[in-house]
Every structure is written in structure tokens, then in C-alpha cells.
Amino acid sequence: MKIAAFCRRHCLYLAWFVSVIAVAGSLYLSEVLKYEPCKLCWFQRIFMYPQLILLGIATYRNDKKIIPYVLPLSLIGGCISIYHYAEQKIPALSKVLPCTIGVPCNKDYLNYFGFITVPLLALIAFALIAILLWTGRKEDTVE
């Protein structure tokens, strides 16, 4: 229970740290390794990048009132990541809404161990942020 109490107490800082890693990772892939983001990657970035700023300000101010506003960003971004990952792993899905401009959304730049791809990494980041914010939304109780 000490881990849960730690996560609840420091949820903003931990969620902000996850968003820093996610944004740095996406910028590294596109700006250093020159991997061009696909359409679905851009949508995931649209939901991740504001969290870096919002959670950073909330962490600095220790203001948990931001949680109801940031949590939907992680949930929606996570849903996009699930679809993107499914599109990469289930070939028939890429025909439902094909990416017609730029990089195809079913292209794997990274594919470690046959299942770790960029959308899965984004999904993990969105899920971690959502879980941390969900656990931290309640006030600390004296144990």
C-alpha cells in the first residue's frame, strides 16, 4: 500500500515525467532518426503534447484540479493508439481508413520482439498517465 500512497501523493509529478519521456521519444524519432510521423501519429501527438505543458504547470503549482481536464486527453489518445496498433497488427484494418497522404499508418518503424511498436509505446504512456491521474484524483487520506 506504500506504493499506492506514493503514487497518489506524487501523481502529478509522475504523470508529467511520463509525458516528458513520451514527447522526448516522439521528437527523437522524428527529428533525430528522421522517421516521418503518419496521420495517426500526429493525432496521438495532438493529445500528448499539451499534457507535457498542463501537467508541468500543475506539478509546479501542486494543483490536482487539473486532473479532470487532462485525464480525457490520455483516454482519447489511448484509444487512438489502440486503433493505430491494431491497424499495424491486423492488415485488414488498414483498408478500412487507409492513410492516403504521407507515410502509411500501418508502417512499422520500430518492431522489437515482434510486438513493440511506436503506437504501443504511446499507448503505454497514455495508460500510465491515465492510471496515475486516476489514482491521484482522490485526496490523501491519513493511514
TrEMBL record:
MF GO annotations: protein-disulfide reductase activity
Pfam families in UniProt: DsbB
Membrane topology: Multi-pass membrane protein
Keyword Iron: no
UniProt signal peptide: none
Domain of life: Bacteria
One CC-aspect GO term: membrane
Stated family: Belongs to the DsbB family. BdbC subfamily.
Annotated transmembrane regions: 12-30, 42-60, 67-86, 112-134
Protein name (Swiss-Prot/TrEMBL): Disulfide bond formation protein DsbB
Single biological process term from Gene Ontology: protein folding
Keyword Transmembrane helix among UniProt keywords: yes
UniProt source species: Paenibacillus jilunlii
